[in-house]
Amino acid sequence: MTLTSTQPAAVRSLRDRLRRRTLDHAAADRAVLVLHDVTKTYPNGKTALRDVELVIPEGDFVFLVGPSGAGKSTLIKLLIRDEIASEGSVVLDGQDLARLPRRAVPKVRRKIGIVFQDFKLLPTKSVWENVAFALEVTGTPRRRIRPAVDRVLALVGLTAQRSQIPSQLSGGEQQRTAIARALVHDPRLIIADEPTGNLDPLISWEIIQLLLRINELGVTVLMATHNAEVVTALRKRVVALEEGRVIRDEVGGSYHRVD
Amino acid sequence: MIGFVAFSLGRAWQGFWRNALMSLAATATMVLMLVLLAGFWIIQTGLLSALDFTESKVEVVANINIDEGPDTIDALGARIAAMPQVAAVTFISRDAALARFQQSMKDQGREDLSKYLDTNPFPASYEVKLKDPSYSAVVSDALRQDPAVKNVLDTKETAKNVKTVTDIMRTAGSVVLLVIGVIVLFIIVNTIRLAVVARAEEIEIMRLVGASDAFIRWPFVFEGAMVGLFGAVITLVFLYLLADPIGGFMVDFFRVLPLSFGSLARDLIVLVSAAGIGLGVLGSWLSVRTYLIR
Question: Which residues of A touch chain B, with CB atoms under 8 Å apart?
Answer without folding.
Answer: 80, 82, 103, 106-110, 112, 114, 120, 122, 124, 133-134, 136-139, 141-142, 181, 185
